[in-house]
Write a structure and sequence with these properties.
164 residues; 4 helices
Length: 164
């Protein structure tokens, strides 16, 4: 009797603006392929898995507005989001958001996963009497500038001071 191993591949269900209860991505694998090819980038890894991992990061953001429905699987579509003085449609997914997911998927495929635990970069280390000095520009987390630029208009600013 032989051993049977079932391999289950990730399946992408694209949110189109309907408020799907089963969606797990804002873009398809084909969209990721085109986006990368247009920029001369080769996608490494299984596209569906990269898109889902990218969604894990994108969905952790504090977006403007309110989810369209309580039961939708993803943070978008949303009501009440204004970009460049115009309200975005609650029936669609912003291109900036799609681009940010694809940029994140490409980064994950290149071993730059913003959800990985990050070690601080050190410029000095001493064992006797234990001394560690962090590089002045070291970040505690991975920073994906291309992703953050795309999400900036869709998310709350995190460096605000609130007085009560």
């Amino acid at each position: 009797m032989g051993l049977f191993i079932e391999v289950i591949m990730a399946t992408i269900v694209v949110e189109t603006g309907s408020g799907s209860t089963t969606a797990n991505s804002y873009v398809s694998e084909a969209e990721l392929t085109t986006y990368a090819a247009d920029r001369g980038i080769t996608v490494t890894g299984t596209k569906a898995e990269l898109l889902i991992r990218a969604m894990d990061y994108i969905e952790s953001k504090d977006f403007l507005g309110t989810k369209k429905t309580q039961t939708q699987a993803t943070m978008w579509p949303r009501y009440g989001v204004m970009v460049n003085d115009y309200y975005l449609s609650s029936e669609s997914i912003p291109q900036l958001l799609k681009d940010a997911q694809m940029e994140t998927a490409i980064a994950v495929g290149n071993s730059v996963d913003p959800l990985d635990n990050q070690a601080r970069e050190t410029s000095k280390e001493k064992v006797g009497s234990l001394e560690v000095e962090y590089a002045p520009t070291a970040r505690a987390v991975t920073f994906l500038k291309a992703v953050d630029i795309k999400l900036a208009k869709l998310t709350h600013r995190t460096n605000r001071v609130y007085r009560v």
